[in-house]
Specification:
This protein has about 475 residues and is an alpha/beta fold. Helices cover about 30% and strands about 25% of the residues. The protein has 13 helices and 22 strands. The strands form five sheets. Strands 1, 2, 3, 4, 5, 6 and 17 form a seven-stranded mixed sheet that branches. Strands 8-15-9-10-11 form a five-stranded parallel sheet. A five-stranded antiparallel sheet has the order 18-19-22-21-20, with helices on both faces. The structure holds flavin-adenine dinucleotide (FAD). Flavin-adenine dinucleotide binds near residues 12, 35, 44, 117 and 323.
Length: about 475
């Protein structure tokens, strides 16, 4: 880096990885700037990802409950109507409040927002919209973009990515979702609840790859019962647009007879790719892997001295909280501290209803690794609170080491699973045994008692089953 620099740390990208890194670096006494080309801070997550999708999931769930479920509770609403424009406006106000919140945090922590496109020139040097800026350390947190599919041309109106699916102006009659992963199932659920006939096409013969098989099977059964149609083991080879809608050509994944499917709107949700092209990385000598992700060492250093990378643009799960943890870790490492992320204790949540939440190893992982384990399970049908709130679908599954009883993984499908997974993540982080969870007093009546009971069931001594 040049002897005199404009900043100590420059972060490129103000998503959860970048903005958290910038704030932590400022807390540690660095002079920090964060480059962001979007009109607002917060990245994919706050603008077109986690936050707007969760707002729409909540709102559509409330609509569905008012229309189809409140009657059972003795609440009679004569006519429930959808005001989609208002629903979208509320979603946008949630986004606006969040992105403004990050702007406030930048001011509070004296982080400078350099507005524009950052381009990496080399160690210590970048440009922002062509203007040179220097720093001792550069952290790339450029995130990811929706992956494309040959033969399927996105126009964000009839054929949309998650971004378009978060702002449709009318409820489609028929929607086809390409991809049975987290984003496809969440946004498919939103539009299904609002009245669309939704078909999910997935290449593999299962949903949410990587999730514990038993959980994935239950998940598929529950979503199907709700009315989402599933076409697993199939691939889309072509999408043709007309004034009427989109005609999709669909084939069995292993080859076979093609068929066609009609849709008003197609959501392409087959994954995301690292945003590593077009801003000087390769020219500066930064190594990328086969999938375009920036290669880093255990301390987030790239192949060019003084340049680091975190979040969706490097390997690992593409999750906001993973990016945030890396943001904190790299800032602390730059300050000479022992920043570290425990990749064995990163929860993952699908915010459908019921939710799916997992942390640690799946049964399949443990079998592959030859680890001997015990299983404890507890269904929400046997949990008092779940019955009271009328949400008894699903179960908790605790996997513990046969010899040491250490908790190796927890997998939950059920109400508020995303909140319940926090104590399980803490258990794994602290190296707890299933006995530790089982002996911890849990408030009654709460959904969290199902976690305790599943831990008790590891040694077959659950009380309520
Ligand atoms: P991003 O959030 O992608 O931010 C990168 C930022 O860098 C962008 O704002 C971009 O404009 C900027 N940038 C890139 N290049 C440049 C450049 N050269 N100059 C200036 N600026 C640049 N994750 C969860 O954990 N939970 C969820 O519920 C969840 N829901 C999701 C729902 C959807 C629909 C989507 C699409 C994603 C969801 N995710 C969720 C994933 C989550 O959004 C990402 O993992 C997270 O945003 C990654 O953070 P990041 O900081 O690495 O990158």
């Amino acid at each position: 880096a040049p002897a005199e620099t404009d900043y100590d740390v420059i972060v490129i990208g103000a998503g959860p990885g970048g903005y958290v890194c910038a704030i932590r670096a400022a807390q540690l006494g660095f002079k920090v700037a964060c480059v962001e080309k979007r009109a607002t801070l917060g990245g994919t997550c706050l603008n077109v990802g986690c936050i707007p999708s969760k707002a729409l999931l909540q709102q559509s769930e409330n609509f569905h409950a008012a229309k189809d479920e409140y009657g059972e509770m003795g609440i009679i609403i004569d006519s429930v109507k959808l005001d989609l424009a208002k629903m979208m406006a509320r979603k946008q106000s949630v986004v606006d409040a969040n992105v403004k919140g990050v702007e406030f945090l930048f001011k509070k922590n004296k982080v400078t927002w350099l507005k524009g496109v950052g381009k990496v020139e080399g160690t210590g040097r970048i440009t922002v919209d062509g203007k040179p800026v220097t720093a001792k350390h550069i952290v790339i947190a450029s995130g990811s973009d929706s992956a494309g599919l040959p033969g399927v041309d996105v126009d964000e109106k009839q054929i949309v990515t998650s971004t378009g699916a978060l702002e449709l102006s009318a409820v489609p009659k028929k929607m086809v979702v390409i991809g049975g992963g987290v984003i496809g199932l969440e946004l498919g659920s939103v539009w299904h609840r609002l009245g669309a006939d939704v078909t999910v096409i997935e290449y593999l013969d299962r949903l949410v790859p990587g999730t514990d098989n038993e959980i994935a099977k239950t998940f598929q059964r529950i979503l199907t019962k709700q009315g989402l149609k599933m076409k697993l083991g199939h691939k889309v080879t072509r999408a043709e647009k007309s004034a009427r809608g989109v005609t999709l050509t669909v084939e069995p994944a292993q080859g076979g007879t093609a068929e066609t499917l009609e849709a008003d709107v197609v959501l392409l949700a087959i994954g995301r790719t690292a945003a590593s092209k077009g801003f000087g990385l390769e020219e500066a000598g930064i190594e990328l892997d086969r999938r375009g992700r920036i290669v880093t060492d255990a301390h987030y250093a790239t192949s060019v001295p003084g340049i680091y990378a975190i979040g969706d643009v490097i390997a690992g799960p593409m999750l906001a909280h993973k990016a945030e943890e890396e943001g904190v870790a790299v800032a602390e490492l730059l300050a000479g501290q022992a920043g570290h992320v425990n990749y064995g204790a990163i929860p993952a949540v699908v915010y459908t209803w019921p939710e799916v939440a997992t942390v640690g190893k799946t049964e399949e992982n443990l079998k592959e690794e030859g680890v001997s384990y015990k299983v404890g399970k507890f269904p929400f049908t046997a949990n008092g609170r779940a019955r009271a709130i009328g949400m008894t679908d699903g179960f908790v599954k605790v996997l513990a080491d046969s010899t040491t009883d250490q908790v190796l993984g927890v997998h939950i499908i059920g109400p508020m699973a995303g909140e319940l997974i926090a104590e399980c993540t803490m258990a794994i982080e602290f190296g707890a045994s299933s006995e530790d969870i089982a002996r911890t007093c849990h408030a009654h009546p709460t959904l969290s008692e199902a976690v305790k009971e599943a831990a008790l069931d590891v040694d077959k001594r659950a009380i309520h089953i």
